[in-house]
Design a protein that fits this description.
- With about 180 residues, this protein is mainly alpha-helical.
- The protein has eight helices and no strands.
- The longest helix has about 30 residues.
- The chain is elongated, with a radius of gyration of 19 Å.
Amino acid sequence: MGLEQIIHDCQNNSIKAQEQLYRLYASKLFAVCLKYSRNYADAQDNLQDGFLLIFKKIDQFRFQGSFEGWAKRVMVNNVLQKYRTQGVVELVNENIPDEEDTMEIEDDNISMDFLLAIIQELPDRYRMVFNLYVTDGFSHKEIAEMLNITIGTSKSNLARARIILKEKIEAHKGNTKVHSAK
């Protein structure tokens, strides 16, 4: 059965089709949830809640563009809405000057696991803006609308996230040099 038929069946409330859709997209959408959640357990909860919302809103999918992109957007918006209502996303307006749009890592010894770990350690407000902008490619205008903040606040939170990450990378590089000198 093709994806289009699975989606049509989901629109007709087929439990079997919902299970197939879940199996097709759960791992990809769980990765999205991990980026925006504070921990693994929250990511699991967000995935389940997000899929319930996808099934509820699947009639809104018009077969224009990819289903995966649509589902990802529903999932991201669901997680952000959940955190907004819980008061977790308290984005603050900080007066941090705009830095260049890219942060270069000049050390090949920095692992992807380390980078993902330090991104996960960012405070919620910085992690969400960083992930939306850097990993998912949303503009500051889109982020501002999604999080109900100003464009300047989005930019300053991104700048602060980059500063924190740069400091952690520098500290890691310093520790690595100390360990390799022994």
